[in-house]
Amino acid sequence: MSIRLGDIAPDFEQDSSEGRIRFHEWLGSQWGVLFSHPADFTPVCTTELGFTAKLKDEFAKRNVKAIALSVDQVDSHLKWIGDINETQNTAVNFPILADADRKVSELYDLIHPNANDTLTVRSLFVIDPNKKVRLTITYPASTGRNFHEILRVIDSLQLTDSHKVATPANWQDGDEVVIVPSLKDEDEIKQRFPKGYRAVKPYLRLTPQPNK
């Protein structure tokens, strides 16, 4: 099953390092980041889970919950968490799904035979409060994820959901944004963007970022 942007994230019930989780119920009205790992006690993933734990306050500011997945058992996860906490100088503060039966991995298409026919690939999904998938990224095993980019995308998604804007290349929170081309009415533009805008081209109109 291939998951595309705009799809409803598949619901599931699975064991985790923090007990049994019913995914949609656990997510509630918050945003979610679901990310998978090939196996416990892998070096790159150890750094990723540690860094995610350190981002707890950043995720909280954005109303985001993180949840990881590996195909190993709960007892293995708990031992691995001890290593993560020790080596990354943090405390894991989110659940790791114990997907030993591959149920969630199959729902989210995380087993790619050309990469490995038994272990999950390193995919990440951003899911909004309506349970819709808003971002998918799949990384090779050799490359650690850029969590600053994931936060940047969440900032963009939350801003553009609230205002008729898009974010340009390399945008960071606070930078200028693009007024969507479909917005033509000048009175509405003045109301929505009281700081004005500059038209580089008729279709490329830049304006200071609105308040979130």
TrEMBL record:
Domain Thioredoxin positions: 3-159
Matching PROSITE patterns: THIOREDOXIN_2
Keyword Oxidoreductase: yes
Keywords: Antioxidant, Oxidoreductase, Peroxidase, Redox-active center
Pfam families given in the database record: 1-cysPrx_C (PF10417), AhpC-TSA (PF00578)
Family: Belongs to the peroxiredoxin family. AhpC/Prx1 subfamily.
Official protein name in the record: Peroxiredoxin
Species for this entry: Phytopseudomonas seleniipraecipitans
